[in-house]
């Protein structure tokens, strides 16, 4: 079946490691009764044609990546590279509400506090109850109306960290390096689901398999599990434990800062720097791609073995100076490395960053290769 080709690896790595997208996770889905058999292409078509535009639910995350416990929540902490480090370990819970493409609310339920991200048309809010602080972003009308082509290519709902968003990262780049099949049926949040299985045809990646639970009635991805080589339990999982497909109460999207809250006002630039997806690598498998989109990022290799490279000066603000991240870094030749059961990140002393779903040795090799002058 024809599918839009996008390179999911860079976006997924940044999401998991730098906290750009994946902040919440899941529990393993349980078995359920049998469903009418479907092929992998049929399940993929269900996902592509899902019409779910409204929902409310509870998300659960489990992350067993082999990292020590990291706590980054607290006063003044907002979503981003630093705060999301904590979501690489342990379990976390969040509530999500979506009503069409421009209304969404995400509530991160910390042990002693709550963090809220609210989108309502041209207004976006982030609120942290631990220090009663809020940040308000005003979105210009010009950014609220995209050209027709952009609207057709864009996701039908806000880019929240949901199973659907995570699943799309993997599904958008299914190619010859991935074996796709349908496993047994499952049950997620009380709903029967088909289990779509993605198995890398590579011995070089840290990923053993990806399982996506797809609602048998609507085609909505309900949960995602990523297993690492040599581990019996999922290394990372994200799923609904409760799901209601009715429209949420409209008042949920009308955010007013509590009395006494410190409010920081920001305006999203009306003409942001244009960006475009990373194209598929071409040429020899281990040669850096000549394109330099996304602030100079390049992709070395392809498929599950690919490595994303960021030049010096392009790391997310606060990443390299984060004391939370420092807890998980290990010294290596020429810099430091973050090693987990699924992802490796190499931070060199000269500011360059390499990341991939591969062992750190693969990153070091890519870094050395990038230093070789072209003939």
Main sheet makeup: 14 strands, mixed
Order of helices and strands: HEHEEEEEEHHHEEEEEEEHEEHEEEEH
Q: Please compute the radius of gyration using only Cα atoms.
A: 20 Å
The CATH class of the domain at 293-370 is identified as: Alpha Beta
CATH architecture annotation name of the domain at 293-370: 2-Layer Sandwich
As a percent range, the share of strand residues is 25-35%
Cα-to-Cα separation, first versus last residue: 41 Å
CATH topology of the domain at 293-370: TATA-Binding Protein
Summarize it.
It is built from eight helices and 20 strands. It is an alpha+beta fold. The longest helix is centred in the N-terminal third of the chain and has 11 residues.
Entry keywords:
single chain, 375 residues, alpha+beta, TATA-Binding Protein, 14-stranded mixed beta sheet, globular
What does this structure look like?
The chain is α+β, with helices and mostly antiparallel strands and 375 residues long. It has a domain at 293-370: TATA-Binding Protein (2-Layer Sandwich). It has helices at 8-18, 40-48, 141-144, 148-153, 163-171, 293-296, 323-326, 360-370; strands spanning 30-31, 54-64, 89-99, 103-109, 114-120, 123-128, 133-138, 178-182, 186-188, 191-200, 207-215, 221-228, 236-244, 262-267, 298-300, 307-310, 330-332, 335-339, 344-348, 353-356. The strands form two sheets. Strands 1, 2, 3, 4, 5, 6, 7, 8, 9, 10, 11, 12, 13 and 14 form a 14-stranded mixed beta sheet that branches. A six-stranded antiparallel beta sheet has the order 15-16-20-19-18-17, sandwiched between helices. β15 and β16 form a beta hairpin. α1 (8-18) runs antiparallel to α5. The radius of gyration is 20 Å and the shape is globular. The N and C termini lie far apart (41 Å).
């Amino acid at each position: 079946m024809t599918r839009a080709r996008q390179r999911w690896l860079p976006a997924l790595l940044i999401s998991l490691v730098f906290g750009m997208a994946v902040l919440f996770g899941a529990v393993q889905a349980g078995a359920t009764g049998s469903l009418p058999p479907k092929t992998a292409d049929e399940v993929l078509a269900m996902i592509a044609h899902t019409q779910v535009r409204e929902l409310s639910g509870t998300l659960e995350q489990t992350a067993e990546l082999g990292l020590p416990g990291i706590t980054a929540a607290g006063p003044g902490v907002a979503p981003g590279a630093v705060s999301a480090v904590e979501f690489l370990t342990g379990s976390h819970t969040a509530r999500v509400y979506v009503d069409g493409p421009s209304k969404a609310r995400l509530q991160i339920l910390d042990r002693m506090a709550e963090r809220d991200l609210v989108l309502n048309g041209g207004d976006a809010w982030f609120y942290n109850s631990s220090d009663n602080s809020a940040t308000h972003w005003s979105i210009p009308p010009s950014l609220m109306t995209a050209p027709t082509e952009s609207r057709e290519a864009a996701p039908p709902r806000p880019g929240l960290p949901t199973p659907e968003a995570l699943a799309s990262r993997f599904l958008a780049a299914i190619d010859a390096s991935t074996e796709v099949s349908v496993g047994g049926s499952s049950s997620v949040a009380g709903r029967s689901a088909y289990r779509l299985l993605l198995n890398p045809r590579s011995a070089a990646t840290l990923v053993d398999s990806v399982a996506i639970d797809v609602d048998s009635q609507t085609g909505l991805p309900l949960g995602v599990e990523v297993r690492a080589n040599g581990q019996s339990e999922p290394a990372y999982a994200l799923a609904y434990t409760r799901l209601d497909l009715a429209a949420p109460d409209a008042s949920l999207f009308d955010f007013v800062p509590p009395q006494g809250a410190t409010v920081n006002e920001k305006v999203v630039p009306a003409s942001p720097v244009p960006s475009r997806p990373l194209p598929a690598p071409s040429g020899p498998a281990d040669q850096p791609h000549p394109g330099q989109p996304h602030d100079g990022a390049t992709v070395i290799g392809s498929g599950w073995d690919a490595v994303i490279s960021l030049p010096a000066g392009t790391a997310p603000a606060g990443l390299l100076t984060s004391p939370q991240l420092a807890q998980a870094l290990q010294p290596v030749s020429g810099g430091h490395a973050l090693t987990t059961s699924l992802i490796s990140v190499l931070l060199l002393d000269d500011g360059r960053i390499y990341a991939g779903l591969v062992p750190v040795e693969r990153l070091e090799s890519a870094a050395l290769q990038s230093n070789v002058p072209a003939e």
